[in-house]
């Protein structure tokens, strides 16, 4: 066996939270990186494994998500992201999710980078929501109704508003202080009015785009199917389901980011899959297939469409790769000797 001194050195690029912020990634840069990765997925130039969950011990309101995948082409990286999802973190002023992305060279297996993925998780989730709407929402949507105010919620609204000129943006959260602070941040950053509602119904009823990003501790059917107007796009992706079982009955199309992650423990449509209401045969498409032009997206104004995204390791890898490239150009981050 050769000693480390006689083999080529291996270095890790390291980006922490402050490095990520210093990069100043724009909305367009985020969307472009994620859309490119979706297109590659649709063309079969990627490999993705269903996420895994680690639940540390009883009595703790949280778990770890482990996501794994590979992207070819110019990116040519394998990656693993581990995200700690702990819903009570807000009580100590912490984010509800901490994430770490590790990138690897797929040709020899050596690690390439360690990147703070807390911000990446929020950005790429918002980008998937927005890109789903780009291909599946009604033309010129007027009203956005958004449930949830923590974690990925900010990037959902910000990137949707980057793509669409809404007449009204409604938000609601179970904690008044949370939704007010959320609305104020959006008003300041987006320069537009944000409507804070007092309940789910007034937030979602008759909205053109409905996004459910709630943080429930157990499944509760708080989003009523009767509130969804014909022709709307509904995007539920909370860890714990907040939708009724008959929601899929009114849908003309159901789209996912990755059918391989339809099964498991958590997810907005968990019971729908378990009861056979959503199957591989009834799924219209994966979003990547639509972005790549393999399958159609929205085909008429009358279609009511549901987009359920579980989160793609490919999105993390693509955004992490793009951030590394910009960091090298800007001289941001650190380089660590690994081997």
TrEMBL record:
> Which GO cellular component term is one of those annotated?
cytoplasm
Q: Name one Pfam family in it.
A: OCD_Mu_crystall
Looking up InterPro entries in the UniProt record yields: NAD(P)-bd_dom_sf (IPR036291), ODC_Mu_crystall (IPR003462), ODC_N (IPR023401)
SUPFAM superfamilies (UniProt xref): NAD(P)-binding Rossmann-fold domains (SSF51735)
- What name has this protein been given in UniProt? Alanine dehydrogenase
Phylogenetic classification of the source organism = Bacteria, Pseudomonadati, Pseudomonadota, Alphaproteobacteria, Rhodobacterales
